[in-house]
Amino acid sequence: MPLTVLLTNDDGPPDSAESPYVLGLYRYLTSVLGWNVKVVLPSSQKSWIGKAYHIKEVTKGSYFYPNIDGRGDRTQHSRPIRDGEIGEWILLDATPATCANVALHNIFPGQIDMVISGPNLGRNTSAAFALSSGTIGAALSASLSKVPAIALSYGTVLHPTPPALFEPAHDLGSRIIKHLWENWGEDSGGLRSGQVDLYSVNIPLIEGLLADESLTICWTTMWRNSYGRLFKNISAASIASIDAAGPDSLSPTQDTAQMEENQGDLVFKFAPEMKGLITPSLSSLPEGSDGWAIHKGWVSVTPLRASFGEPPVDNMGDIEERVWKMRL
Q1: Fewest CB within a 10 Å sphere: which of 63, 154, 227, 322?
Q2: pLDDT at 251
Q3: Judging by beta carbons within 10 Å of its beta carbon (0-12, 13-18, 19+), is residue 262 exposed, middle or buried?
């Protein structure tokens, strides 16, 4: 029996500007690896939303039948696949984490061996990006349901990114995914019988992908960093904002936010200052971290736990020493 995987993302259905990679990876997973791939995606761009769930909204969806060019018919009810269509996908008006959970427990219960989230348009190296990422959020959602998960991200380095790099990235990404599945790591603190909860894989889209030996692949840790201002006040005048796909998108487009009459001065738009995260100095990057690897033009593979990071328990002492003695 072929492996059955769930493919999701945070960039939404195929789109040359905002979601240029999901269709290509789907073709590699199905045609090259021969896997059975179920696809459940957000119906629109959902970057920078982390592991948020829809809890008050009613999540609605549609069936999507993409052609080889990524365009296709949407219907409210499932129907037979027609000539020229590559499969039946599902689009949900939901966050990536919601898509993963609904797919695992409502649409394909008990059928999924592994979840693949991505490929993300842009890197997800470092804590600052990972904690904001809808791509990693979907993988975390899956791992909390005790399903192995891999978040795959393509780091934009060249602007615009040459389309010739897309296929080599899909080829390398699918081979890394296959290797991880067949050699899943151990973690005594993992949720699934001492196994790694999830992996975050980052592939820089650089010319080295075209070389016979491709790129160096390195086990990494996550670069712990921070960011400052993410939003800009737009009450005084209209400003240009960053592309909806995020600061590492293929070719950021400028979307101008216009003032509305009498809207007040507490009006803010996402317009982050990201230079220190996108182009940090090598000296600021811990050797062996994911940020360090992508700076060198390497692929980073980072094992993660589906939990907030904690200091080692050994540093806390025994239970008696952990009980607060002070009066508040």
Answers
A1: 322
A2: 53
A3: exposed
